[in-house]
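Okay, is this right?
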Amino acid sequence: MQFDLVDLRLYLNVLEAGNITAGALRSHLSLAAASARIRAMEASLGIEFLQRGRRGVTPTAAGKALAQHARILLQQAEHLRQELAEYAQGAKGQVRLLCNTTAITEYLPELLADFLCQHPNLDIDLQELPSQRITHALRQGAADLGIVSDAVDTQGLDTRAFRDDPLLLVMPTHHPLASHPDLRFGDTLHHDYVGLAAHSALAVYLEEQALHAGLRMQIRIRADGFDGVLRMVAHGAGLAVVPQAALERCTLELALQVRPLGEPWAQRKLLLCARDLGALPAYARALLEALVPA
């Protein structure tokens, strides 16, 4: 068995993308070269790592085991590179940070920009994911740090408080629900909604909560950001659930009614977490200290 780091990184890119073509593109390889590497990996052990189908690829049981070890090996290789880089002036490092929608749009832009200005030799690989997928990635060693909602299970992870992040219901001033002072999310699901892009972490989270209530959200239109969502709601397109921080940041004078939601999951807090905060390499520890000052 002779896998190199390029093989392992390609394999993970293929899994994340769901097909070999996109995985090859992420790995900066041609499709032919990527396919040959994957076949050589399988042939070296006589085991299939991927099940090929019309809609893409999925890992076999052996492929799942390979993915878990590949993530650990690549992270260890990156840690080694970073620690050795301290001896080489001008060497660059990269922190992988996974965040939910609110963190990435409302809290982090200025914090991360300041950090990059203060640490010219460090880069940040920032990705938006639902909180549950973030905790899974951290447990698998696929990222250095994550910011998640406290509504998800963080057992086995090291956490610190980051921000209070309640979710609020917004509606047009003359909406039929505007006369109701106390609302639960389930009470709203027979009405039309304005949503974020379907792939956004908050959109996925709200869809999951609707399914828990036995219903689906009636999304009439989606917007790329909270400002667009709020403007559409103010003009009567439907309801929306947004973080309090997005409302506070909005500088437009919009005709909106705002209500808290009664469900505990809406009174959420954001947590910064890692597998072991004390064992983070120096470059990731620097970002941790910038995000959560002592």
Observations:
- Residues 106 and 245 are 6 Å apart (CA to CA).
- The two ends are 46 Å apart (CA to CA).
- The chain has three domains: 5-80, 92-164+269-291, 167-266.
- The mean pLDDT is 90.
